[in-house]
Amino acid sequence: VCLLDTDDQWGARVAGQIERATGHVSRGLSAGAQRVSALISEGSVYLRGRITPTAEPMQVHPTVRSGIATAAAVSHAASEVVGTAVAAAMSGLGQLGTSVLGAVGSGQNTEMGKVLTATARAVVTVVGEVGTAKDALAST
After folding, report:
1. What's the pLDDT at 89?
2. Are 6 and 105 in contact (CB under 8 A)?
3. Cα angle at 83 between 99 and 24, to 5 degrees?
4. Residue partners of 113: CB distance under 8 A and separation at least 6
5. Angle 117-118-119 (CA atoms, 0-180°, nearest 5)?
6. pTM of this prediction?
7. Distance between CA 134 and CA 23 in Å, rounded?
8. Is residue 86 within 8 Å of 131, Cβ to Cβ?
9. What sign for the dihedral angle of Cα 93, 96, 102, 108?
10. pLDDT for res 1
11. pLDDT in tens, 13-56
12. Which tens digit of pLDDT belongs to each residue from 73-84?
């Protein structure tokens, strides 16, 4: 005997838990991106304050120069990959949501529909927050 068969409110409870968890994940992503961005800014200010210009340009070893160029290229590529993944996930989610909710029938009128609707909202929220966090970090 399935316990879900005897409980006509399980979908609403599960949906509520999904929505609460989504809020925690979303706030964590946002707070993390803001904190990392602030730390990068603070570190930059600190380093700029400790650097004293010299009369002639400093010679930078080619290995260091290459390492910096590689790091910049990798961070730019990572940002592009995340942006592409977010766009693809949002597109796929829209198609999946349409298919799943159509298969469930009226969607929100069934307990499973409530769970699926909350899950779809959760994924959209988290994927959107990942995009926002990516943009925040890319701007620092």
Report:
1. 72
2. no
3. 70
4. 11, 101, 104, 105, 106, 107
5. 90
6. 0.55
7. 18
8. yes
9. negative
10. 42
11. 888 888 888 888 888 888 888 888 888 888 888 888 888 888 88
12. 887 777 777 777
Residue labelled with tokens 């969607």: 107
C-beta of residue 119 within 8 angstroms of C-beta of residue 96: no
Q: Where are the alpha helices (DSSP H) in the chain?
A: 3-6, 10-50, 62-104, 111-138
Q: Which residues contact 11 (CB under 8 A, 6 or more apart)?
A: 110, 111, 112, 113, 114, 115
Question: CA 108 to CA 113: how far, in whole Å?
Answer: 5
Radius of gyration of the chain (CA): 23
SS3 126: helix
How many CB atoms sit inside 10 A of residue 7's CB? 11
